[in-house]
Amino acid sequence: MARRKLVYEGKAKILYEGPEPGTLVQYFKDDATAFNAEKKATIEGKGVLNNRLSEFFMTGLNNIGVPTHFIKRINMREQLIRSVEIIPLEVIVRNFAAGSMAKRLGLEEGTQLPRPIIEFSYKDDALGDPLVPEEYIIAFGWATQQDLDDIVALGLRVNDYLSGVMYGVGIKLVDFKIEIGRIWDNDFMRLIVADEISPDSCRLWDLETGQKLDKDVFRRDLGNLTDAYTEVARRLGVLPNGGPAAMGKPTLIN
User: Fold this and answer.
1) How far from chain centre, in Å, is Cα 178?
2) Do 197 and 54 meet the contact criterion of CB atoms below 8 Å apart?
3) How far apart are CA 216 and CA 34, in angstroms?
4) Could you tell me the pTM of the whole model?
5) What are the pLDDT digits (tens) for 150-172?
6) What's 187's DSSP letter?
7) Distance CA 172, CA 159 (A)
8) Helices (H), the chain
9) Sign of the alpha-carbon torsion through 231, 236, 242, 244
10) Nearest C-alpha neighbor of 134 from the set 156, 149, 114
11) Cβ(27)–Cβ(13) below 8 Å
């Protein structure tokens, strides 16, 4: 296969030019970062797990009519996705108080919120991805009011789906973050779910024990991150016997 053109490299993924116009190849790295990349490590198998888990969630969303950028998985670490214009916001959906929200409001971690709460942060690593109100988003032209209404609707639909899937395997969906992209069909613009959905971007706690099965394991030195992600994949039926190393043979793009 010819060497592909690098489009973008982030903390956990690399984007390459896709085989067809309007497509990209998304490669999942084993790198783990926390606290705005102040803490870093390479964790073997993490990229394989996140690729398979994100495939599982994105496919599920596509199947229930929630549009995503996901087209298909290519191999153990790569998937083919639609190229989108990313809105420079992280969309955070919270069901229980945890992390920065718990600290900001003085809430005990795990406190159930009165309803799902959606927050927005401005995607800028140098600034620490600060929370921004809707007024800023509209004033700076990052999104329109109609965009925000549609984003909130998408976020709540993703939350309904993920919460149900996780509850069915004994996992509490505490919170998660997604990114939203714009695509155009001729002159018609649509918003779709982009980036990834994985334990890197969700807080997942065991329903009975409260054991953390997400990136907080790495952030807080609570154990082996691969073991936590493997447990999520095992419960969802994503993980074949043999662990990450057995997750299918590559199917290369010509």
Assistant:
1) 5
2) yes
3) 9
4) 0.91
5) 999 999 999 999 999 999 999 99
6) T
7) 12
8) 46-63, 99-105, 134-139, 145-168, 216-219, 225-236
9) negative
10) 149
11) yes
